Amino acid sequence: MKKILVLFGGCSPEYVVSLQSAYSVLRHMDRERYRPIPVGITQAGDWFLYTGKWEAIPAGTWQERPCPPLSPPTGGITGCWSGGAAVWKSYR
Q: Which candidate, 51, 3, 42, places its Cα nearest to that of 19?
């Protein structure tokens, strides 16, 4: 089973569209072939591994549930870490 990173949100005027698109992708992904890893980005630019109900994503309430914070990739780093442990491997 392949892991698929699904990013949503972000510092953009298209924030709401991103939430709706991510929800649609998550709902229609073949769960027998892929394991989705939803990562939400707030409008302030904070990254979170989202583990809640997918219905909260398009509703815009996904941030109301505590989520583990992530450090976004920077300067040549090709993975994301939380608390010093790799959450997933390189996503190049």
A: 42
Distance CA 44, CA 61 (A): 15
Q: Are 41 and 47 in contact (CB under 8 A)?
A: yes
Dihedrals phi, psi of 68, to nearest 5 degrees: -65, 130
The confidence score (pLDDT) of residue 74 equals 56
Beta-carbon contacts of residue 90 (< 8 Å; ≥ 6 apart): 78, 79
pLDDT of residue 46: 84
| pLDDT tens-digit series, residues 21-72 | 999 999 999 999 999 999 999 888 888 889 899 999 999 999 887 676 676 5
- The answer to whether 79 touches 86, Cβ cutoff 8 Å, is yes
Instruction: State whether residue 34 is helix, strand or coil.
Output: strand
Is the CB of residue 68 less than 8 Å from the CB of residue 62?
no
